[in-house]
Structure to design on (419 residues):
């Protein structure tokens, strides 16, 4: 979870902003598979971990439930591939076909299990929480905010955002949506929570910002786990708006991977909304999403 | 004999002219920026609709604001029909600048123009 967070809190006391920063820092330390001493790195090394705080086991349990419901396009045991390609880092490479072929059998979330606070990996599997960690960290932050006296807050983790509470004078939160096919802002989302301690989460997936150029060709950071190569999709970006950060994060990746052909069932659901932009600039959106394209 | 050369249009003059031009453009631009881009219609402090003022719309109704008819013309919104007797909201005329409001107290209706140029809370 190598992301910079920005935290803005309108509050009566000054403590909650500091508390959120420390909660997010702690989550980063736990979930980042690149950090040598993170909980995830230790789990990957040892194959088993007793998760005392319960966050990692809860994140995994919730993600496995989402996979059961929506499909296994996104799997936490994708680490063998992300480790091979190193997309987004200075050392990104085009791996040998043989290495990719060898990595694929290790990717299967059936090799990952949680029993109480005990997390176990078998068959040499290893996890990378890149598809869900930010969303889950924002869920933790929302819980902190609910216990606080903050009126409203915006926690921005670049591709994932938490909007907590209600702004003054019933002003909606204004979210600028970047144009994934060009520069600048494509339009605005205006979002409001119904109750003072409600939260709404946004997560965007795409390859506009995180990719690597290898031998002059652009490779994205989201992998097709059946081929071992960066996913081929006609969508440029997918934003999911939901009342749960993990759900938004997970689904934005999954929907992006499935492309426009897989969009219809996701556009008309009750518990989340979708804004998808294809590589030709065509916009698909859920009917209830207050998105306004800039002229 | 030493000759002094006089230039009608010196460097400093050019700089003053450029500064004046920038100032004039700013004066012209600021009111445009303050033009409201959309109207928010509230009833009982609940948002019923957010409507762009960029497109003209003939008399239309808004769900949740029963009995009211609205019109958008030339970047301004007006209440053209209302269910109450005093019709203060109708007499308020058309509004189009950010921050302007039309209020109907008996029916707890408020129309507020919001600028599109406000800073976003986040960019995604």
């Amino acid at each position: 979870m190598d992301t910079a967070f920005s935290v803005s809190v309108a509050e009566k006391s000054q403590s909650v902003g500091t508390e959120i920063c420390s909660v997010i820092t702690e989550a980063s330390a736990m979930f980042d598979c690149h950090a040598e001493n993170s909980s995830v790195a230790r789990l990957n090394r040892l194959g088993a971990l007793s998760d005392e705080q319960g966050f990692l086991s809860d994140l995994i349990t919730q993600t496995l439930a989402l996979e059961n419901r929506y499909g296994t396009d996104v799997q936490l045991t994708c680490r063998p591939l992300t480790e091979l390609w190193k997309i987004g880092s200075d050392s990104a490479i085009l791996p040998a076909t043989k290495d990719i072929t060898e990595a694929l059998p290790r990717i299967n979330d059936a090799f990952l299990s949680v029993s109480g606070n005990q997390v176990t990996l078998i068959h040499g599997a290893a996890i990378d929480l890149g598809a869900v960690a930010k969303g889950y960290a924002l869920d933790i932050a929302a819980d902190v905010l609910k216990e606080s006296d903050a009126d409203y807050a915006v926690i921005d983790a670049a591709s994932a955002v938490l909007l907590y509470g209600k702004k003054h004078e019933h002003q909606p939160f204004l979210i600028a949506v970047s144009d994934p096919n060009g520069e600048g802002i494509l339009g605005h989302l205006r979002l409001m929570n119904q109750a003072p301690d409600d939260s709404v989460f946004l997560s965007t997936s795409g390859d506009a910002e995180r990719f690597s150029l290898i031998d002059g060709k652009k490779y994205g950071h989201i992998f097709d786990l059946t081929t071992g190569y960066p996913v081929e999709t006609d969508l440029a970006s997918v934003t999911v708006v939901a009342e749960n950060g993990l759900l938004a994060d997970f689904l934005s990746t999954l929907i992006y991977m499935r492309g426009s052909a897989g969009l219809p069932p996701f556009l008309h659901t009750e518990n989340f909304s979708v804004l998808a932009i294809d590589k030709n600039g065509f916009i698909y959106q859920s009917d209830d999403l207050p998105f306004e394209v800039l002229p | 004999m030493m000759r002094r050369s006089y230039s009608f249009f010196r460097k400093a003059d050019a700089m003053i002219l450029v500064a004046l031009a920038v100032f004039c453009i700013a004066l012209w631009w600021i009111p445009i920026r303050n033009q409201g881009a959309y109207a928010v219609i509230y009833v009982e402090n609940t948002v019923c609709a957010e409507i762009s003022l960029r497109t003209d719309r003939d008399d239309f109704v808004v769900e949740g604001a029963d009995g009211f008819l609205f019109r958008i013309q030339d970047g301004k919104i007006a209440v053209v029909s209302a269910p109450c007797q005093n019709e203060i909201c109708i007499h308020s005329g058309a509004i189009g600048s950010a921050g302007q409001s039309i209020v109907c107290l008996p029916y707890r209706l408020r129309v507020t123009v919001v600028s599109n140029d406000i800073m976003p809370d986040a960019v995604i």
About this structure: The radius of gyration of chain B is 24 Å. Chain B is about 25% helix and 35% strand. The helical segments of chain B are 11-34, 88-91. Confidence is low (pLDDT under 50) at residues 1-6, 23-35 of chain B.
